[in-house]
Amino acid sequence: MRSKTVAAGLVLMSTLCATPAMGDGPCDKGFRDTTAAERASMTRILEAARQALPAAPAGWVLVNDDPPSVPQSLCMDSERRPWPYSYSRTFRRADNQKQAEIEAGTRAAADIMRADIAKKQPRLDALQAKSEVLVKLQVAFMEKGDMTRALELNEQMAVLQEEARRIMEEGDAEERSAAIMKEMMRDIEIGISVQVNPGGESPAGDDATAIAVDGSPAMAYRWDSRDDDSHQGGAVVLFGQWRETGNGGRRHAVRGNVPANFAHGVAVRVHADERRLESVIETIDFGALAELVAP
What we know:
This protein is of the alpha+beta class. Helix content is 37%, strand content 21%. It has helices at 36-52, 96-143, 147-168, 173-184, 277-282, 286-290; strands at 21-22, 31-33, 60-62, 73-75, 85-93, 189-196, 209-210, 219-223, 232-240, 242-246, 249-252, 265-273.
């Protein structure tokens, strides 16, 4: 049975993101260890981000809540540019009600497919019987050395195979079963990430809607599922000074006289079921996150 379910591990978010050596590709100037003071500053920023994120909703569990981890080394080619680092938090459903929904949905989808096959089985059995007769005739012709007549039966077999395929594709049982599985697997994961000094962001598509949040962000958008197989919606909130880079992209500005390991731009991304997304957004302390890039 073909299924278009959403894997529980969609949506969506990595766990704690630490960059062991910033900068991809060749490093002409070599690497150096970050200093204890630099790491302490970054840790304070990530800890503030961590405190700004919500606890697990009722019936959910926090999958990861590791202490913030920051870059231990960096390429000196890029040490004057803002250093990227991040913190993410993921929640998953763990209540008995959701488990019951999954079990009921699985049974319902299986029942639909079993009923569909049972309805089609007599015709499929009849085709199978005809096919077996043709196979026996073909073998008999081949044993007599009459390959011409044996090969002529291939056309009749192909007609039977096409009829069987058409019968299997009749009706909408597969679509109804897939729809049940899709609905069953919705609203099982929430992901929130705070990216400090990200390389760039693409905050808005044609279907994104501007939203209002605390902290006077540079921009904030939300959107519903952009995937036919998912009910996951998304949102992005950007703090700091951001400029357009083309094709909907944005890049944050560098704050003058601010160390590269401090926050020059912050991107907050949220992924959750479309029906839950707004309530998740409301639990985030965006005012505290705005302070990370305050003058």
